[in-house]
Amino acid sequence: MEKRRLGNSDIQITPIIMGTWQAGKRMWVGIEDAETVKAIRAAFDADITTIDTAEVYGEGHSEQIIAQALSDVRDQVVYASKVWVSHLRYAQVLEACDRSLKNLNTDYIDLYQIHWFPGAFNTQVVPLEETMNALNKLKEQGKIRAIGVSNFSRTQLEEVCQYGQIDSLQPPYSLFWRQVETDAQPYCVENSISILAYSSLAQGLLTGKFGRDHQFEEGDHRAKNRLFKKENYERVQQALDRLRPIAQRHNCSLAQLSLAWLIAQPQTSAIAGARHEEQASSNAKATQVNLSAEELQEIDGIGRLVTEHLDDNPVMWDWDS
Predict the structure, then answer these.
(1) Which residues carry out catalysis?
(2) Residue 320 binned pLDDT confidence (cut-offs 50, 70, 90)
């Protein structure tokens, strides 16, 4: 799998990135550690060598599962983790990083990201300069190699870039969720900041596995996703019906087609989670789907059947509903 440069750093990442929110178990159902370890290892065996996690995913459990799966090949993989929004004071950042290093069984994290802009979820508003001072210190110490941010708008990204080198932005981004294109993406392109798209399969919608009458189990956070709300969900199904013939033409799955479209967008790599080995191996094959300019434009138009009816709220979930 051909690698790409992470921002302006010397780190090389894969266009498909293994996502491990589900590995933390919290807010998911039916997750088994042994299966997750196998899935992460299958991703590695399929040449997905960049792994994304966060301290908040199961309070470190996701990071620990990654360590179980990959510690013996640590020198061949890129670890990306995140500091939670309630840990953004100088000393808290240092402590959080040390916890993640321990969980990941490593002495450095390749990419360390601010998970949300200070103040999100009613947390303390910490000056970005203070948080960045801590991150720059960690970089000087060799505990992290690059700094990134997640869920930042363009205005917030411009602000944080005043205090140090930012090599990546991690926004929600998929064929069905595209606010970043009109907000931060132009700035990222102009400044060589990599976009690491999360929920790149719209939390499973773009796999086509959820039928029109699907109901989530109790405890599955996807029930709060606005794309699953009735008025949006019907448009999603109509769009999927139009994507299927294109996937058939390329002898690929809907998921592979959607990932192939996404990694063809400017500066963009796609984070895709997997519960099982087969899913991880299948995600990797998206890099083999070659879409023409005409097909990319056709897929773009199909995606807008959904996105043109969404508001400007950048958060995918109605947590309070």
Answers:
(1) 57
(2) low
